Amino acid sequence: MKIFAVLGDPISHSLSPAMQNAALKALGLDAQYLSFRVAKENLRDALMGARAMGFSGLNLTIPLKETALEIVIADDLARAIGAVNTVSFGGDAKNEIKGYNTDGFGALMALEMAGAKIRDSRALIVGAGGASRAIAYTLSRKGAQVSIANRSRSRAMELADRVEGKGFGLDDLDKLVPRADILINTTSVGMKEGDPSLIDESWLRPGQIVFDTIYNRRTELLEGASRAKAVAIDGVAMLVYQGAKALEIWTGLKAPADVMDSAVRDALREREKAKAS
Ligand code: ATR
Fold it and tell me: By C-alpha distance, which of 227, 264, 229 is closest to 243?
């Protein structure tokens, strides 16, 4: 049996096991996807242990993605982004531990599947943390003109410099949002009910693409986007496609994205039901 796993701390809320086990089953593979709580200082031991035990692949989540860069042989994109979310083993005589970042690809696919054209588009990313970095690099490499707006303007400027984009503060959003072809929220604002939106609904326009990386609930931003007749994309699509890409790296097989999408949405509904009861 092939063993895959996600490592992180905390890890109990990860949707990856439900999503990936549904995919492995649909592909007819004799495999299991597990989750392990691993503290940052134990990541090296955990990776070596997983390799020694013949694991077939790993995902990494908070707070391990950055630390992994010092341990694994990361590809160009993961190094540029500064974070590894997918690990593979072996494939060569040295049995190297290789690192990738599929988060940006997940966002790219989420956008393209909804009909977005990336090349020469004006993409406005709100937030300048880990998710923003992965998306900014990926969209910039695909030929988008990237702008980044962040609460801390200096952090936006720093990232913008690295992707040949422009950096702004949040007080520029009223001018930036109407001009954007693609608007992406990567901040945590919207995760909790009642969070005040950073984006006024009146700045949105029909046909604009509005992508919120938050996936635990339908955010006020996406509700506003739907009312404004913009194209609203939720964070489940990004979660699914980053996982699909990881599965393809490990197995070489095309991942069943539709099965993975349903598994995530089912798991989220179950979670809501459990919370309400
Ligand atoms: P992630 O890795 O998920 O992107 P992160 O690195 O912690 O998370 O980044 C969180 C992002 O959300 C940052 O851009 C942060 O802004 P700052 O860089 O100014 O801290 C943004 N963020 C978090 N809470 C926010 C809030 N209440 N209002 C505006 N931006 C917020």
Answer: 264
